[in-house]
Amino acid sequence: MNHLGFEMEKVKIGSFDFTCCEGCQLQLANKESTLPDFLALLDIRNFREISSERLDDYVIALVEGSITRPDEIERIKAIRAQAKVLVAFGTCACFGGVNNLKNRIPQEEAIREVYDGKAVETMPSMKISDIVQVDYSIPGCPVSKDEVERIMVGIVTRSQVSLPTYPVCVDCKQQLNTCLFDLGEICLGPITRAGCNAVCTTGKTACLGCRGPAEELNMPAFLELIKKKGLSLDDLHEKLTFYNAFEPLATDET
Amino acid sequence: MIYKVISKREFKAFIDALVRNNSSFGPRKVDTGSNGEPIYQFMPVKSVDEINFDYTVTHSSAKHFFLPYRDELSHFNFSDGNWEQEIQYESPPIILIGLRPCDINAVNILDDVMLHGAYPSPYYLARRKNTFIIGMDHLPLPDCFCHSMNRHTVNHGFNLFCSDIGDSYYLSINSSKAFNFLKEFRIEEPSYEDNCSLIERRKNIKNSFETKIEVSGLPCFLDIEFDSPIWQKWGDKCLSCGSCAMVCPTCYCYSVEERFDVDLKGSTRQNHLYSCNLVDFAQVTGGHNFRPKNGDRLKYRYYHPYRGFAANDNQQICVGCNRCGRACLADINPKDVINDLRLERESCMICVSPSPDKT
Amino acid sequence: MHDMRFTIPGQDLNREPFAVKIPDFQKKSEVMITDKGYKCRITNIVPLSDLERLFQLRIIDPLEREVFNFRPGQFLMLEIPGYGESPISISSSTSNHEFIELCIRKAGHVTSALFEARQGAFVSVRGPFGTAFPMAEMQGHNVLLIAGGLGIAPMRAPLFWINDHRDKYRDVFLLYGAKEPSQMLFTYQFEEWKKVSHVQMSTIVEKPDESWTGRSGMITALLDEFTFDPKDTYAIVCGPPVMFKFVCSHLDRLGIPMNRMFVSLERRMHCGMGKCCRCMVGSTFTCLDGPVFDYWSVMNLKEAI
Amino acid sequence: MKRDYSLDIHHLTRVEGHANIQITVRDGKLVDARWAIVETPRFFEVMLKGMSAERVPFLTSRICGICSISHSLASIRAVERAMDIVPPVVAEKTRLLAMHGETLQSHALHLFFLIAPDFAGTSSVLPLIQSHPDLVRAGLQLKELGNEISTVTTGRCTHPVSLVVGGLSKAPDKERLLHLRAMIQERKPALETTCSFFHTLTIPAFSRETEFISLSNGSTYPAIGGRLVSSDGVNREENDYLLMTNEYTQEFSTSKFTRLSRESSAAGALARFNNNYHLLHPKARECAESFGLQPVCHNPFMNNIAQLVECVHILEDAEELINSLLESDLAEIKTPYTPKSGKATGAVEAPRGVLYHHIEIDDKGKVTKADCIIPTTQNNGNIHNDLRALVEQSRREGKNDGEITKLCEMVVRSYDPCISCSVH
Ligand SMILES: Cc1cc2nc3c(=O)[nH]c(=O)nc-3n(C[C@H](O)[C@H](O)[C@H](O)COP(=O)(O)OP(=O)(O)OC[C@H]3O[C@@H](n4cnc5c(N)ncnc54)[C@H](O)[C@@H]3O)c2cc1C
Ligand code: SF4
Ligand code: SF4
Ligand code: SF4
Q: Would you call B264 and A41 a contact, using CB atoms and an 8 Å cutoff?
């Protein structure tokens, strides 16, 4: 930074998508009020969705989506080999996301169901870190542009970046929302990492945990709460497995 | 203090005139809980009809009007390898309607913390000075325990306080501003009957408390019980979600964060209300956490309000509104925790020195 | 029901009374702008080890520079605009009004940013905050300074103070221990401290290498090199928590009264002004009631070490 | 004329998702021109099985990051119709407004980020920030407006939070609606700037007759639900979606293809325009006229102009919707219901065309079967055939290889294909 006597450099970035809805990449083009400033931080080397330019000298790779096909394994390995910093971008990349819901049934059955037996290549969905090492994770379905901005600015200015460690309830209470448990619903806010500004509960829908577990979450106490309130364990299970973000916890406990 | 009486009807006209022309906040029903009970919060109001004067209690306290959940402390403007620091703490005037005595006491406690130490906070002062507070008494809910904390009455810290004496309100006017506004409305000197009604009302409130917490000697108790296993027992239930501290009218601990503007032409230093229950509250560089366990952190959530901190004369800062207890999904509340603590200690005393048998 | 008197247009209410302008606190002497810092220029950066550097700061405004005063043991909130604030002990002499020296280890967000900074960069400091070592009370007695690792940073201010008022103190000892020889800081000043300040000094490392000719082991081992009357001795102990716990109980056994041993505690701090509550130790604020505590108080603090 | 030509674009850029264009001309004869979608399949229909009906919209919105509101609403409509739930009027209006927000955002993204660089001869929008600052500013203003409409109505611009079965979980805030109305006023000039820019462009002259499919309800420009109609005269009930699509698989594509009365058909802005011209706001029709766009237009490149025309319509209609919401009591936003069994189709006009979700529910309220047919799927056949016709026409006109390649890319982009969404 200028006042500290060093010049900042734009980050050479590549944005890549795997199996996903591309909603997270789309966030990069959102928050239009600061978009020109945001783009000015980046030197976009490879971003198929918005640019025809394809250069392979990126330093940071934003990787969106989960891995569901053998060719994707090769592609992610190649990206890992090039990128100094690999960022798992969005819930699918960080945890597998909704894609993992298809893992519940055998893949052949899934193909039969959707493609009438036409040969389609697929395999059980995996998160990025199942294949290659991930340096940073930016969870969210979709990611919060505010957080992405903060992290990119952090990288450019060489300041360290971190995610909130506490759960969504903090932000939710700060929005003066009515707690969904008071309305008789199960909300994953108490066990989910904050940083989304409690956007779902502010819209009065339950948190489904897209940002993954808050640090040191207390699962036994959370289960106790569901039981004590007489809420449906079935519903809890559906919510915990929605984004695959509570993987081991969800399957052991419910 | 000047005492007057105003008919409820006239009072509404008065409030209406106020809220129509000023940025005002009052209790409003925001939802109906699954148990059928209405849920209230202090929300913006534009006319008197939007205010629920007969509300019970708001889920969140009014502290964020004085200590916003996020607040900008200063801004740095960068230029040519240099920077300027800019600090702003102006705040527009607002009216707060319907605060309970415990809520006003809570603001008075925040005054102590924020204004009476070695480093008074200009941000807080600006907001405090520009807030016009109209208090109202109420019959306690079954779980209110402000009486135990001796915060069920209040005699300062508001502009106007209204006690419900049937068809009218008994007004305690505590500021010339309030007095001037009221001059334009039909207010009367309290009659003998009015005074009697007020005393009756106070008695009635005082006698309606169902929840009692024994707080005498609690500070010393808490010091002795610092390492009690009770904390881990309750800590095991705690979700470390911070809800209790967010809704509490006196919890004020915070975190400071600094962020670059996206155009890199400046940066902002913000404070963000935090909670001692949150996992990294006492974590330092290198990862050492002075309070690694839920129990260690929950202990501070109790230690602070009931032990009091040395810096503010060890005064207990809990006002007994039980908002934390209501907000807690894990059913952790001051009454149960403190009683448990006392019970353990007392049963312990008994085994050490059994009382002589009655003969 | 309303007669004319009551239909006050709200405008009137709004007009005068509510146009209360916030008083300009800046002009009111009783309210400090607590978040305003002194702008400083980094005038010199001295590498001390792989992880530690000494930063020399100069407050830019001459008036502010004049006003800025501190006592040995106090700390500052060092702000790197854009990156954040950190509490740092002042490591220079109280009589030096030209420069402030800070000895800093690269540890996290803020300190790493500082290590990127070049000479001439602009930073800001707030403070000084906190309690100090009771230099006046120590007069006429022996002073035992025991530093471990980075604990030498807060130790320099009392050392300089003693040098400035050397005749007021009796025997002064400095015991300094580090993990490895390469982590021993300020070695270039040892001779000066010994010769000019008449400090009896000894060093020790935990893990010696081939270059090291001195002693190795725990810092308390150095105590047998010196003779002093424990009853007439004050001690200042700075270093990681494990170390001062260990050292203080040793000194206690030697007979130094607990209220004559001083330590400096470190906690997470976000304000320095007793508001954010991050630095609570039991019911005590490290920033207001500390960081310097006597060992007796520390013993009485909950969760201190 | 060169006798051989081959084009193999691996992962076409500036489109959503992964697809290739492969063209081979040998000895002057076109042997192959294909639109091959290689996107990884996600199996949403499988994921949906066993899920509670109330959660369905939250899952289906994840089919697409651009038109998540449409997916959410298609599912909600299917579930509501299956369980006989009638949402309150306020909810219907809010949903329609949300659709407008999404379409505006999507069209703006397409016109500025994906299409404009083709005409300007750049590889992305980034160089345009310098060369055409006013245009880029206008584009961002419109996109931001679209996002803001979605945020005010649904809580967030991608993956809506407050669109639920039965209505809305939270009503839009009146203060924010007021602000939105002002914002629309303020941003109309941005749309004019955009129109002026597009007036300066030469839209490639190309035409291939096809069948246009859209929704139609006869009284308003289509958005949520209605009859399924085509420019060839087909007119069916919503639940008969299968008869409109006749999905089939192609061995070279992971996305399916559809057909109706001809070998392929088109959905999207141009189809809506062609089938519902008279229901557009007069200002929108005026705009169409200024571009010489009239129904029925068979030039796929004109789809972009139809999008622009729709933006004009949306700004006008959104204003009216906001006014009507501001006058309504926003207390009643959700119809209570108890889950029951049933099956139905929900069709909506997503930015890229008709979107069908068909959902079957058991008496516990769990999904037993789901089927989603995406607009891009319905355009695949047309894209495929257009490529063939375009290559042939261009070669006749003596265009060089570079020009042909560019035109091929452009014709694909003109459909604004959303590939990841089509392979769901
Ligand atoms: C009274 C006092 C004096 C100190 N003196 C020195 C010194 O002279 N030299 C030196 O190198 N270090 C000193 N420290 C420790 C130094 O403050 C931390 O290493 C520093 O805060 C790390 O900041 P960071 O932003 O780089 O690390 P991060 O880990 O990124 O810290 C994040 C935030 O946490 C807080 N924090 C983290 N660790 C600590 C800690 N140990 N103490 C206080 N706050 C913390 C800070 O507010 C910081 O902004 C002192 C600490 C205290 C309390
Ligand atoms: S609604 Fe969810 S996030 Fe909000 S307070 Fe309740 S449990 Fe926490
Ligand atoms: S600690 Fe609980 S009861 Fe006490 S003031 Fe805070 S919220 Fe109210
Ligand atoms: S005590 Fe209750 S409200 Fe507070 S952090 Fe623990 S679980 Fe959350």
A: yes
Sequence-separated (6 or more) residues with CB below 8 Å from residue B104: B133, B135, B154, B157, B158, B161
On the question of pLDDT at C126 being above 70, the answer is: yes
Do D341 and D351 meet the contact criterion of CB atoms below 8 Å apart? no
- Model pLDDT, residue A170: 95
> What is the CATH T-level fold of the domain A2-156, as seen in this structure?
Rossmann fold (3.40.50)
| DSSP assignment string, B215-256 | -TTHHHHHHHGGG-HHHHHHHTT-----HHHHH-SS---EEE
Distances (CA, A) of A188 to A142, A193, A213, A220, A226: 17, 10, 9, 13, 11
Chains C and D touch (3+ CB pairs under 8 A): no
Over the stretch D162-181, which tens digit does the pLDDT of each residue have? 999 999 999 999 999 999 99
pLDDT digits (tens, 9 = 90+) for D197-252: 999 988 899 999 999 999 998 899 999 999 999 999 999 999 999 988 888 887 77
How would you classify the pairing of strands D5-9 and D19-26?
A: antiparallel
Q: Which pLDDT score is estimated for B222?
A: 77
Which of the four CATH numbers 2.60.40.4070, 3.40.640.10, 2.10.109.10, 2.40.30.10 does domain C16-129 have?
2.40.30.10
Q: What is the pTM of this model?
A: 0.89
Each domain of chain D, given as residue ranges in start order, spans 44-422
Domain spanning D44-422, CATH class: mainly alpha
A210 confidence band (pLDDT: 50, 70, 90): very high
Query: Which of D156, D96, D105, D117 lies closest to D13 in space, CA to CA?
Result: D117
Residues B26 and B84 in one domain: yes
Best mutation site among B16, B18, B21, B315 for testing chain C: the one with the most C CBs within 10 Å? B21
Taking the centre of ligand 3 as the mean of its atom positions, its distance from the CA of residue B343, in whole angstroms, is 21
Return the structure tokens found at B127. Answer: 């907001």
- The predicted-structure confidence for B303-314, as pLDDT tens digits, reads as follows 888 777 766 667
Mean pLDDT of the D351-377 span: 93
Q: Are residues B292 and B201 in the same domain?
A: no
A-B interface (Cβ pairs under 8 Å ≥ 3):
yes
Query: Which of B220, B306, B309 to mutate against chain C (most C CBs within 10 Å)?
Result: B309
Pairing of β B82-86 and β B70-79: antiparallel
Domain that holds residue B176: 2-206
